[in-house]
Request: fold
Amino acid sequence: MLTALPAALGQPSRTATAWWRDAVIYQVYVRSFLDSTGDGIGDLAGVRAGLPYLRKLGVDGIWLSPFYPSPQHDHGYDVADYRDVDPVYGDLAEFDLLMADAGRLGLKLLLDIVPNHCSSEHPWFAEALASGPGSAARTRFHFADGRGPDGAEPPNNWRAMFGGPAWSRITEADGSPGQWYLHLFTEQQPDLNWRNPEVGDSFEQVLRFWLDRGVDGFRIDVAAGLFKHPELPDSADPAADERARDSVNPLAWNQPEVHEVWRRWRAVCEEYAARDGNERLLVGEVSVPTAREHAEYVRPDELHQAFFFDLLSAPWDADAFRATITEAIRDIAGTGSTVTWVLNNHDQVRTVTRYAGEPGVEASGLGAARARAAALLMLALPGAAYVYQGEELGLPEVLDLPDDVLTDPIFHRTGSRKRIRDGCRVPLPWSGHASPFGFSQGAAGARPWLPQPEWFAEHATDRALADTRSFWHLYREGLQLRRSLPQLGEGSLRWLESPPQVLAMVRGDGLICAVNFGTEPVPAPVAGTPLLSSGPCPDGVLPGATAAWWTGDCPTP
Reply:
């Protein structure tokens, strides 16, 4: 018996299907993808060299992490100039070559844009420091007098998501203790004041600068941020704000005015689309408590899509996955957008390690088996999907980086290794049996900016390509089928009644995807050999921690 979602859910709201609605985008963390110069740091020329590999994998496009001029306090998410390329990554001429090559290969190219904050080395901030209290330059940021008789206490009790107070005090030009400025991440990333119209006007020009160079859209960092409560009152629970990492402080997050920004940006994208028929995509990093609030960001005149992080954070449990998927399709697809599924990114513990559950389990293969099954499930869901680099290689998290190589500001602000992100950012292994594993192309023996463990050899790209049982081939075959089968991509979903810890769904007409979240084999929901499975899957049986796709006749609900 089939359990159907309401008929409108999971269905497109318009007849014309845009490329982004069911696209699979590969996230390139530029610094760790491929180094063309031998300095140990990935660059734009390295990305360009890797495009044929990504085309062969079968993705529809790439999203590049920030490559703008930056002092690299947060590896590019502290932007000093939004309209140029940091010399460590190349230059604008190299970017134009990358853009052209991506176009020739049929790959869309998205840029990461960071509108909530800039670098403390941005010219605007330097001007603000040089100007006095009350100056126009300071109104581009959140400067405020401190509390207490000497102004020695921060203006409010807010905490930074990377640890510590969200305010830093400056020394004025005359050497006296001065005002405080707000930074929800680090002191090197002052928050911009979006209530100043100059900020919005400047970012519109940034969008146009890159759209004129041919980009296909933008991934928007901290898309639920930007606006803060105009009175900057105290938070009810600042400790919870700091623990959350993605802020839960409603005074600094998810303010209603932010939606006007996305309407303005959407209008710019629509203007460019009207010229050539190619829709430019806005996809937001939206961290809000519920799918219903998430849906408010993807209304028809706002962002095209927003990452749905609830699948990433769901526990390995069939009921939890089913509830999460159902809620997303009901609330998000109902706006006319499509759900944008993710299992990982540059801020998260890698999927293989996260699904292992506890140290030592990973060696048994359970984490890898679950990660393979989750990947196949994600590719079967209606909507778009994003794949973080290295997930197609089954890379585990690097957990034993020594303290002296860690670069994450979370570690340096808190002194704790909890929630640090360096372990998922270690440069990719491409070939060979020893570091740099083909990552550095320009000079023999170049040392990557983060050390690669010896066991990376087991996950190198050359081995993955040669082994038809590898993660890489699972992703490639799944992507090929996703494009060739009309039941996949955008469309409807219906749930099958299934045993405990088994999730089974029907896509379109005649394709079933099932995942066994348990450890024991169960009867398969469809007779016959699977079209594709995440592990060995005998006829009539669905082993534990395995996903599979079948085609055939499906009963009506």
Remarks:
- The first strand starts at residue 2 and ends at 4.
- The chain is about 25% helix and 15% strand.
- Confidence is low (pLDDT under 50) at residues 1-16.
- The radius of gyration is 24 Å.
